[in-house]
Each structure stands twice: as C-alpha cells, then as structure tokens.
Design a protein that fits this description.
single chain; Rossmann fold; 7-stranded parallel β-sheet; 6-stranded mixed β-sheet; 13 helices; globular
C-alpha cells in the first residue's frame, strides 16, 4: 500500500514566514553591533609626573582645559620695570694736598699714653688768627683736653688776621719754650715763614684748617684738623631744599679765592643741590672777595625777581649783607642758608626772618682733637695728615641743641630771649 504525504499548504506558508522573520532578526542584531555612535568613556585622569616638558606624554584630546594662571602676559609680552635712578654720588672732603679725611673719632690715646703725657710736664700755646664765638669754642675744647692730659697752657694770642702780627706772636711765645703750639696759619706763604722758628725748635705744631706752604706732614707738623667740608656743603643744600619744598630758583654766592676750605664747602653745596634736587635751579651766581655780599644780593634780586633762595658762604659778613639786601628789598619770602653759627644769623632765624638753616661744625670738638694731636706729637706717635669733625644742620627748631653740639655753649642771651628761653 502506498503511503501519501499529506502536508497542508497553510502550514508550509507559516513555516516560510517564520524563516523570513528569523533572518530579519539576525540582520538587525548585526547592525546594532557595528554602529558609529561615540562611546561615553570618560577622559583619563591627568598624571602627577614632574617630568620635563619634552618627556611629558601627549594630552588626550578629550582632557579638560587646564585652570587659568595669574599671569596676564607671556614672558615676551611683559613690560620691564625701569631700574631706579642711581643715588647721586656725594662729594668727599679732601685735605689741601688731596689727603684723605680721617674722622676725629679715630684720634685717641691709650691709658698708658695718657699717663705718660701726664707725667711729662708738657706745655702748650694757642696762637689764633682772630677772636669770636668759633675761636672761643675751639679754645675751650683744647683747654679742656689739655687739662685732662696734664698739659699747661702758657699762652694764648690773636693776630686779628694780620700775618706780621702772627709771626711776632710765634717769636714771643717761643721765648716761653712751649712743647706744643696749635694755630691757624693766616696764609700759606706767610705762615711758612712765621712758624719756621717753631719747626726749627722741634715744637709739635698742629694746624687748624691751613698748612704752611712746603711743610711736610710728620716732619714739620703733626697734623691738620678741620670740619668735614663736603658734609658742610651737603648739609646747607639739604637745608635750603627742605625750606623750598624741593623746587625753586636759587642764587649762589661763593668765596672767590683760592682757599680749599671755603672752596670745597661751596662746591659741595652746588654739586649736591644740582645732583639731588633737579627741580631747584641755580639762576644766578657770583663770587665774593672784596665786593660786599649786600651789593651782590641786591643785583641778584633785580635781575632775578623770581628768586626763592640764596646760599652765602659764611655767616659773619656775607650772610649779614645778604639779609640786609633782602630786608631793603622787602623780600621776606626768600630763604637763606649759610655756614657757621653767629649771633646775627641765629637771631634772624629764630625770629622767622630769611635765614632758614645754618650748616655748622663741631668747633669744641676741633679744639679737643687738636690738643690730642699735640699729645701725639710729644709722644712721637704718628697722626693722620688730615682729620675732620662732623657737620650738623641747625634750624630754628634745634637752635639750642645746635649751639651745645657745635660750640659746647648756650645760645647768646638775645637768641634765648627770642625763642622764649
């Protein structure tokens, strides 16, 4: 018997549809696995290596931008800060032959040297060029130091700026056989002749400011003592600049003579004023020798009515003349500075006049230092060739202290009365 295959056509259609559906499902699964959609993988964390820039790995493209720095420009774009202006070079005091200045504080004696001098029975003479508050202060300082050293002062003279009188004073004093003479030689040439007899007798000579022409340090004289000349000029310039507030027009009256003391003081004032205070201009300058400072100041005022200040080389004489000219012109607003303490200029200053400042030295200290160098001489102890004492600035505010430091004295009675002292 033959067996027949009884397959239903509808069943066959169903089976065919299932096969098609299976193929379609597989196809869809393959498409999803090859899609170009980006992944969501996070960028790798930055490393903490400290390697140099050339050794660092490349930063992935997806790494976040670095935090901003505080630099606002690259090195090439930075604007360089200008270097500060160099401070002006201050003038330096030198001796008459260019000797380096040594501070008076360097002049001293040991206890054994003091004892040796005290036991020596030495004598001294003071031969001055003139009289006045300055010389009185130098004398007081010298006498005090000589007393401490047991040295008797056997003579004191004043030549009143007369070279012939000074020569006579030397001869007269030498008759008393002093071991030490301290003096200011009135002139280089006249002084050389005047003091030669003292050199010949082996007297220990100590000079204030000047040295006689041709004298050899350590052979003919012990040493020179004076004020710090450049510091005096600098102090005067600072005092005037302070009074003018650092700006203005200035008249400059200088000592027109070959004298290293006043020359260095004057030049230090001028150079320091010009170097340190560029807003102050010297609009007029005139030297003084025989001509009156009053005439010079009057002419300056006529030619330069906008003048704010005047420098004059010293107090007694030149400064008096300048003050007189200013009073006559009614120029009460013109500031004046000068050198050396003197009653007239001090009184004008404390009364609110034109004088605004005085550069002074330590005159009392000058005398003490000269006396100590005289002791160097009798001991055979070498002394520096050129020694200076400090400069001080005196104003109305420190006038009493200034007199005490400079002259070791109180201001004159009229000055004290003017300040209510």
């Amino acid at each position: 018997m033959t067996t027949k295959n009884h397959k239903n056509p509808r069943w066959l259609l169903f089976v065919a549809l299932l096969a098609v559906f299976a193929v379609f499902a597989v196809s869809c699964g393959d498409d999803s696995s090859t899609s170009s959609t980006p992944t969501t993988t996070a960028a790798p964390a930055p490393t903490t290596t400290s390697a140099a820039a050339d050794e660092m790995p490349e930063t992935p493209a997806t790494t976040a931008a670095p935090a901003p720095t505080t630099t606002t420009a690259t090195t090439d774009e930075m604007v360089e800060t200008p270097a500060p202006e160099p401070a002006p070079e201050a003038p330096i005091t030198q001796g008459p032959a260019g000797e380096a200045a040594v501070a008076a504080s360097e002049i001293s004696l040991t206890d054994s040297e003091i004892a040796e001098v005290q036991a020596g029975g030495y004598t001294a003479a003071l031969l001055w060029h003139t009289t006045g508050a300055f010389v009185n202060a130098v004398t007081a300082g010298a006498r005090a130091a000589f007393a401490e050293l047991g040295i008797d002062v056997i003579a004191e003279t004043s030549a009143n700026f007369d070279a012939a009188q000074q020569a006579n004073d030397v001869e007269t004093v030498l008759a008393q056989d002093p071991d030490i003479i301290i003096s200011l030689a009135i002139g280089p040439d006249s002084g050389a002749a005047a003091f030669q007899p003292a050199v010949d007798k082996g007297v220990s000579l100590v000079f204030l400011s000047n040295v006689p022409q041709g004298y050899v340090h350590g052979e003919d004289y012990v040493g020179i003592v004076t004020d710090d000349l450049a510091a005096m000029g600098i102090t005067a310039a600072d005092l005037l600049a302070d009074a003018l507030g650092g700006t203005g027009n200035v008249g400059y009256i200088f000592h027109d003579a070959a004298y290293y003391v006043t020359n260095q003081r004057d030049q230090a004032f001028k150079s320091w004023l010009q170097a340190k205070y560029p807003d102050i201009e010297i609009v007029a300058e005139q030297g003084i020798s025989d001509q009156s400072a009053e005439e010079i100041a009057s002419a300056m005022l006529i030619r330069n009515p906008d003048i704010d200040g005047i420098y004059t080389p010293w107090a007694a004489g030149p400064a008096d003349g300048v003050l007189a000219a200013l009073r006559a012109a009614g120029a009460s607003d013109v500031a004046v500075v000068t050198m050396d303490l003197d009653t007239n200029v001090a009184l004008d200053m404390v009364e609110g006049g034109n004088m605004v400042g005085i550069a002074a030295d330590e005159a009392y200290n000058l005398g003490r230092t000269m006396a100590l160098e005289g002791a160097y001489g009798v001991l055979g102890k070498p002394a520096p060739a050129f020694v200076v004492v400090p400069a001080i600035g005196v104003t109305a505010e420190n006038i009493v202290e200034g007199y005490r430091q400079s002259l070791n004295d109180e201001p004159p009675e009229e000055v004290l009365e003017a300040i209510g002292g």
